[in-house]
């Protein structure tokens, strides 16, 4: 090592209101035979932390060497000097001898010893169960079961905080003290948002809450809202700015409008974004018009649009091929009764374009969105709660000759009164007259849409993306040194996810959080998430080709472009997704070839094998013995594992997250609450419903408060920040390897080609599912986006 060099002029730099970067020049005198320094050690004797944004060395021969920094450095008197390695990758056995001890030391520090309460200055990554979703110390009604670590409620692991047990229930962890009214859980400081992202996120939140506040005081009508339900469809539409109005920034939904350029070096990003986002003056008291209403404000009500979104919408991962008819449940008939669906032949015969049911099955023409088994075990408990009423539902579709789906029937099911008894099922078929709304049909469809939006948020979005990515982040930091080539590869896909997940634990999925307050299952939402994880989640099933084949939406075909053939040719999510899946897989294969000469090198990589073992046995301890875990024993298996791990936080998350406002920002299209069941025929309630069907419909779907709260959340979650890093992009100097640089350029070029392909598909009028009745193009898997709510763009990681 060289002699230490002090950063001169440090004390002359004064803190400012807004944080900003400072540059310092330093000189190191080293023997020429020392070669290129492989690491720097940084000591901070000051009480305050600083962010080491970057560090580079210019050698005597003018070469510039970069180091992996962008990290907060706290006082190092207890931990010893921080270690920052050169931006160069080495497998463990190839590590230069002087760096090997430092490599091991750094990993030991990041793993910790599993004890103690985490402090803000800690950089320790460890596992724990979800034992902090409830708040029994505040109110026994806020007690919630622990997720993970027990057979009844298995779940992936979260980042350990080590807080003491709660006072009233020692099996639960106590909650941290709120900071400015918000719960903040420990995550290592480097996992937090960067400054521009953080300011932009807070500005988005403030601006969206302005919309919500205006709703609550009824500013658009001049009167305070007194009714909990909307009184008409027109009253809902008054929440939004007129078509074509440009509210700027977060509110700019017009895909062909150019943003006014913005200088990101302005330190007051928060104020700039609230007052004048993207250079446009902000109007905070109206919601922007969601994409679903942009071209035609009534198209959302059509059965065509309802059906299309199961192929090209917010949750296109549920629909599956019908392989037998009648449909059957997989639940225990001794508890849940006859497994046979009430949708019978007479409901659908005559609507199959001349085919018999047997022919429709053999020609793969029948499809179903089936929420029955996921919901039925919870329906009775959900319906016992105040202001929550639901069914276990199914929607049956027929694939028409033009490759679009046609709704055949909807089924709404209540569980039997006694174990094994008769279920109460209702079957609805589309009304013959479509010239005006049929609100009984609309109400039945709302119940199906509500099942779907809950499954979207709790299963497809939170569990399958956010929750399952957290163990990967923990294991990567615990077992793959920053020198490891797979750490270099995976790091962009894991950025800031721990931070957004801890925020969700405090605000969204916790007892009394947004999910419980605004989604029908309320207190049972996360228990349903656990049941989904237990029954449906496997690692292998998260790979796009495997998922499509498992749902019967594709068949293996070695002669096909991607090795599989889609059953529905015009399935936008799958068609676009397979293009990107193959591009990611090809990039990973090139990358792995650069660093691993053969399969033996994969097997002999101790860091890599420990990483994979811990993801399965610690991160998913409750399912470590389940099927679906591939062996990491070859280069090809490593490529498949890496592709799946990158697909989830980038493409899969983009597909289910960034369309939330465009597709669900108009509440009646995807109501998060259903508050009434259909009354029994012959009762006064039945007569009242028949007399005023629209009133009954409006009293069933989300009320004013829950609607505007979820609209505000959707607006925030659907927004891209100004410094977003998208798939195919990397931070400058992310790795110093010419072969990797060339391979990555090929990957980025391939993604650009895919973007052009998606645009051409959306322009192809023969592909009717690309636009649908609402003329809302499917762009959620277009790789890049501008800032704001755009319903497109794939960030590298889950940062929202």
UniProtKB/TrEMBL annotation:
InterPro entries per UniProt: LipOase, LipOase_C, LipOase_C_sf, LipOase_plant, Lipoxygenase_dom_3, PLAT/LH2_dom, PLAT/LH2_dom_sf
Keyword presence, RNA-binding: no
SUPFAM superfamilies in alphabetical order: Lipase/lipooxygenase domain (PLAT/LH2 domain), Lipoxigenase
Keywords assigned: Dioxygenase, Fatty acid biosynthesis, Fatty acid metabolism, Lipid biosynthesis, Lipid metabolism, Metal-binding, Oxidoreductase, Oxylipin biosynthesis
Lipoxygenase domain span: 89-800
Region Disordered, residue ranges: 136-174
Lipid biosynthesis found in the keyword field: yes
GO molecular function: metal ion binding; oxidoreductase activity, acting on single donors with incorporation of molecular oxygen, incorporation of two atoms of oxygen
PANTHER family xref list: LIPOXYGENASE
Protein name: Lipoxygenase
Species in which this protein is naturally found: Ceratodon purpureus
